[in-house]
Amino acid sequence: MDEFELIARCFAPLGGAADDVVLGIGDDAAVLAVPPGQTLAVAVDTLVSGVHFPPAIAPADLGFRLAAVNLSDLAAMGARPRWATLALTLPAADEAFVTGFAQGLGEALQPYRVCLVGGDTTRGPLTVSLQLMGLLERPALTRAGARAGDVVAVSGTLGDARAALDLLELDEPDEDARYLLARYFRPTARVALGLALGPLAHAAIDVSDGLVADLGHIARASGVAIDVELERLPLSPALARRCSRAGALAHAAGGGDDYELAVCVPPTAWPAARAAAVQLGVALTAIGQVTAGAGVRCHDAAGNDRAGDLAGYRHF
User: Fold this and answer.
1) pLDDT tens figures, 153-169
2) What is the end-to-end Cα distance of the chain in Å, rounded?
């Protein structure tokens, strides 16, 4: 297949039909209609083979993962996902690979009615990029709004994806290993929770590079300090069974790729935030507090600050 056959066969079906897509796949650029009174949130992520995913990844898992990491960015902003563009660099026009990739991409995007409205394909080392656009009906959640006294909380469980990296070569993974690997290959973007917390939280970020590292972004942007209690970090039963307590907590604090939300919520709004999470069936665990000062402190059971040992992923 050439480039145009790839697009028509595999990706055009993800374009959908919507009133806000004036012009979608097939032209030099998409034309989109942003509803009056709303603003546009835009995120983009690039995944490179051997850097952000193992070369042997199933194509459907790669498509799903690419969509999920972008959906997570919009979730952190409290935005509703709406449109996407795709840049796909392939070593060769492999129909089976592209078909599987498109299937996984669609599985992740379609629950949110996201329309794929354009993109590009080219030859080269396997690299995939997705730009996701969403709508905001209220001011966006950002990293810069945290205030002293806020409750710091995280959704779901942490450390699962980091633990999965040690299991990639298993020939016959057991039930716990399969759970952890699924958390890496097919993360859950907390879109509904981000929308629910938008009116309640002061700041938010998705946990992609590691909890301590990502909370550091909030601390710097907001001009505050954040104190985290290591023992309060939520762990999945699978992680707790697979790792020692110390190892599991280190994965939870310093590992990345969980794509859970970390939020700073004023104490007066904390009961409403927790109730909203319960209604959505998502765990929301208080793990610390915003204070005056700078940086992130991560206290272990003995009161020692472990933040320096849990710096998280660095891109360069």
Assistant:
1) 999 999 999 999 999 98
2) 36
Tell me, yes or no, whether 166 and 302 share the same domain: yes
Residue 61, sorted as left (phi over 0), alpha (psi -120 to 50) or beta, turns out to be alpha
Helices 59-77 and 175-185: angle between axes, nearest 10 degrees: 60
230: containing domain? 151-309
174-178: average pLDDT: 96
Average pLDDT over residues 123-147: 97
**Closest to 261 in 3D by CA, of 178, 147, 143, 182:** 143
Q: What are 101-119's pLDDT values in tens digits?
A: 999 999 999 999 999 999 9
Which pLDDT score, from 0 to 100, does residue 206 have? Answer: 98
Residue 7 DSSP class = I
* Residue ending a domain, choose from 136, 169, 204: 136
CA-CA distances (angstroms) from residue 313 to 226, 253, 308? 19, 11, 13
Structure tokens at 101: 């990739």
- Residue 87 in any domain: the answer is yes
Helix, strand or coil, per DSSP, at residue 285: strand
Based on the domain organization, do 242 and 181 belong to the same domain?
yes
Domain assignment present for 141: no
Taking the whole predicted model, whether its pTM rises above 0.85 is answered as yes
Task: Determine the Cα–Cα distance for residues 9 and 98; give it in Å rounded to an integer.
Answer: 10
Handedness of CA 154, 158, 162, 167 (dihedral sign): negative
pLDDT at residue 312, as a whole number: 57
